[in-house]
Design brief:
Largest sheet: 5 strands, antiparallel
Distance between the termini: 48 Å
Strand content: 15-25%
Order of helices and strands: EEHHEEEHEEEEEHHHHHHHHEHHH
Structural class: alpha+beta
Helix content: 40-55%
């Protein structure tokens, strides 16, 4: 194999690799030997077909397979010989005019990871904001939980349904006078104002009494999941069987027993654990932000453009999705365009932090164990149908880049935990409102070298969040917060598309009446 470097510019590299016809032909011989025992041909016993006849019968396929294997090996040899660390999967192109029996010339283009000096972890100083899980916080959580478990009780038959009431109805739907599948039901409970049904349906139940019969006219949304109902006007013949009103929720031992617990004290105990977990999560988020701010402020190195563009593409896609749900989507998207450079800076920061944490982890022996990796794979497999989970697990185990992508968030969290242990940490007790405001205010700033922000100054968290950005923009900046939890790593070259796509195509239809809105996509 002959190799010539044709480009060395920044992090970009390009090579011209020549694979000899002799090497390819030797691989064809290997393929012939491998398939010979299975080849059947009239006049020959199984496994006794001469190699020259096998070449004649399967020459094109054998040569193509041998060429692909030779190219794969050539790229691996190139990476090893030149000690290259590709940022993403290298691009490989076969030169035009290749003919069977001749040398094959390929072009390998890639971006390499930057050489990062051993990051110093000395002198890290962090403030740990803590919030006590007091009785007030626990009771607030219980009250929130009780509100979610709203109960309804029977109202007088003369009671006219109002927003917040529950109406029990029988219904029969039709489009152009023709009933449609799933459009009929009995004893369906509808909470007026919940927004669970298609627009206009619940509003027309206001004022209804037990025993009323009425016709509700609505139009199915354009995004409705049933194709023949999208955008169609429909009528529902309704019979009101009962009107119920919200029942007062008294938080006492009886309430706790209705949940299967012994007493209110036991409920408080369980809720306190949950509140503590939430507050610890806020504390960690704030600390991690400040840690990453310090790392970003003290390290500045070139990052692979393709990694940045891939990261920016994910951010921008989320931004556009959020903007499309604004009252004026076009205006929201136009507003986003003004801040494209800011979001590009977020992408650069995310990639740089990912590479930096990876370097720190490698330098200090941080590892994800085989048991932890298996647990990650098992958890990720749960998003697929049971029959597809085995295929997904096999895919991750065979594809190193896919496994690396799955492993990255846990690995980086372990690096962060390692840095927490090395940092000089001071504690300060604050309120939940203060720590949430501090985190939200931090969402509105893109930190990094040259940002002009004193990252290490001591300050008391503002009690009020910074001025809000437009809705779509704010959601996008929060995407940076997610990145702080798992900075960018090398994306997998391939995705397990097949199992996921099939799972989506074969998802069971909704069991409730088509009056229900389509579930929002995650």
């Amino acid at each position: 194999m002959k190799t010539v470097e044709t480009l060395n510019e920044g992090l970009k590299r390009e090579y011209r690799v020549t694979i000899t016809a002799k090497d390819i032909d030797a691989r064809v011989d290997d393929e012939v030997k491998a398939i010979a025992p299975t080849v059947r041909m009239p006049g020959f016993r199984p496994g006794k077909v001469p190699p020259n006849l096998i070449r004649k019968m399967h020459g094109e396929a054998l040569n193509a397979d041998a060429l692909n294997k030779a190219i794969d090996q050539g790229v691996r040899d190139l990476m090893a010989k030149e000690k290259l660390r590709p940022a993403l999967q290298p691009g490989v192109a076969l030169a035009d005019g290749y003919e069977r029996g001749k040398d094959a010339e390929i072009t390998v283009s890639l971006e390499v990871l930057p050489e990062i000096e051993a990051p110093s972890i000395d002198g890290l100083k962090l403030e740990r904001l803590t919030v006590p899980a007091d009785d007030k916080a626990v009771m607030a959580k219980i009250e929130e939980f009780a509100a979610q478990m709203k109960r309804f009780e029977e109202a007088p038959k003369t009671k006219k349904a109002a927003t917040g009431d529950q109406v029990i109805i029988d219904f029969a739907g039709s489009v152009d006078g023709v009933a449609f599948d799933g459009g009929t039901g009995e004893d369906m409970a509808v909470e007026i104002g919940s927004g669970q049904l298609i627009p206009g349906f619940e509003d027309q139940l206001v004022g209804a009494k037990t025993g009323d019969e009425k016709t509700i006219k609505v139009t199915f949304p354009e995004e409705y999941p049933v194709e023949n109902l999208k955008g169609q006007p429909a009528e529902f013949a309704i019979t009101v069987k009962e009107v119920k009103v919200p029942a007062a929720s008294k938080i006492d031992d009886e309430f706790a027993k209705s949940l299967g617990l012994e007493s209110l004290d036991k409920l408080k105990e369980l809720m306190k654990d949950q509140v503590e977990q939430e507050l610890n999560g806020l504390t960690r988020t704030y600390m991690k932000r400040k840690l990453l701010d310090q790392l970003a402020a003290s390290h500045d190195f070139e990052v692979p453009p393709t990694m940045v563009e891939a990261e920016f593409g994910q951010i921008w896609q989320q931004l556009e999705h959020e903007a499309s749900h604004e009252a004026d989507p076009e205006a929201a998207k136009a507003e986003l365009e003004k801040d494209r450079d800011e979001y590009h800076a977020i992408a650069v920061r995310r990639v740089r932090l990912g590479l930096l944490l990876s370097e720190i982890g490698q330098a200090h022996g941080v590892q994800v164990s085989n048991q932890e990796m298996q647990r990650l794979i098992m958890q990720a497999a749960q998003q697929y149908r049971p029959e597809d989970r085995g295929r997904f697990m096999e895919y991750v185990q065979q594809d190193a880049l896919a496994a690396a992508q799955l492993r990255a968030p846990l690995y980086e969290d372990k690096v962060v935990d390692f840095l927490f242990e090395k940092a000089d940490i001071t504690d300060r007790e604050v309120t939940r409102e203060e720590i949430e405001a501090a985190i939200e205010a931090d969402d509105d700033h893109v930190h990094g070298p040259g940002c002009g922000h004193d990252h290490d100054h001591d300050h008391k968290p503002a009690k009020k969040a910074a001025a809000k950005k437009p809705a779509a923009k704010k959601d996008a900046v929060k995407e940076e917060a997610k990145a702080e939890e798992a900075p960018a790593k090398k994306p997998a070259a391939k995705k397990a598309a097949a199992p996921k796509a099939e799972a989506a195509e074969k998802a069971e239809p909704a069991k409730k009446a088509p009056a229900k809105k389509a579930a929002a996509k995650k």
